[in-house]
Design goal:
single chain, mainly alpha, elongated, membrane
Length: 292
């Protein structure tokens, strides 16, 4: 029996609803946490087999069991490192970017177990341990990245107050123009404090300041201290009010800068460490076969 237009519209609506739910689904919970289950199963199998398999004289990377885990771990590392290339191709379906990212996260966590069991806890000052240490550094930095991406976007949105970056800067510029005019009747010392605040580059800050949001040399805060409450004339009160508004606007901009820095800083560790890991892994494999 041919489907009626009404039935067809129901199917289309159901498909649209399913697509919308998928679009709003986090990569961590993608496909009902399929890759978390896969990763957990891998970890469970590796841990159980580690204690069941009898390796003489003890577990180590050079045993048949160690080679098996090493091959699995090396394959995972190479595959996980391809996420950057995969991001350039946006596709739907089973191997969508969201699915790939979900697998990247959970299989990356599984590497903690696979890689560590591969070593048999035989660690030392050599290229083999270096590869393991770099792997752990990549994983830890990745965990940090997941954490900030889960928490900070909402903070970014709240801090913006529906303002764009350009609007924040324009709001600051508007306050600066008012300050410049209001500071004309002030005395020399007060004027110098305001000028110093206006001349300071609000975007010039070191990495530590951006990450912590602490600006002990803020000229605006210093200028505001030059106008103690209770002993101000009308002109000084106006300038103090504008400086207070400027400080508040600066705080919004600096919070935005801090959140973005926290979102980006882990990549400066994660990506170089991944490259170093692949190099160390290659050296590890070559040395193993050379001395085999």
């Amino acid at each position: 029996m041919a489907s009626t237009p009404r039935d067809s519209s129901k199917v289309d609506f159901a498909f649209a609803e399913k697509r919308r739910d998928t679009d709003h689904e986090s990569f961590l919970s993608h496909a009902r946490m399929r890759w978390l289950k896969v990763s957990s199963a891998i970890c469970l199998i590796v841990i159980v087999s580690y204690f069941l398999v009898d390796v003489e004289p003890r577990h180590n990377g050079g045993s048949w069991y160690g080679y098996t885990l090493g091959t699995i771990g090396a394959g995972l590392i190479v595959w996980l490192s391809l996420l950057g290339i995969r991001k350039r191709n946006i596709t739907d379906g089973r191997w969508s970017l969201k699915a790939w990212t979900s697998a990247h996260v959970y299989l990356g966590l599984a590497l903690i177990v696979v890689g560590t069991m591969h070593t048999g806890f035989q660690l030392g000052w050599n290229v083999h341990t270096l590869a393991w240490a770099l792997m752990m550094l990549v994983i830890v930095s990745g965990i940090y990245g997941i954490s900030v991406y889960a928490a900070l976007p909402r903070s970014l949105s709240t801090n913006r107050r529906e303002m764009t970056r350009g609007q924040m800067i324009e709001a600051l510029a508007a306050i600066d123009r008012q300050l410049e005019a209001a500071a004309q009747p002030l005395g020399r010392s007060e004027s110098d404090a305001v000028i110093a605040a206006l001349d300071q580059d609000v975007f010039k800050a070191g990495l530590l300041a951006r990450l912590t949001g602490s600006y002990p040399r803020c000229a605006t805060a210093r200028a505001l201290r030059a106008f103690p409450e209770g002993s101000l004339n009308k002109a000084e009160q106006k300038v103090a009010s504008l400086l207070s508004r400027r400080k508040s606007q600066l705080s919004q901009i600096r919070r935005q800068m801090r959140y973005k820095a926290l979102l980006q800083v882990w990549l400066y560790i994660h990506i170089p460490a991944t490259i170093a890991l692949i190099a160390a892994l290659l050296a590890h494999v070559i040395s193993v076969f050379y001395y085999w």
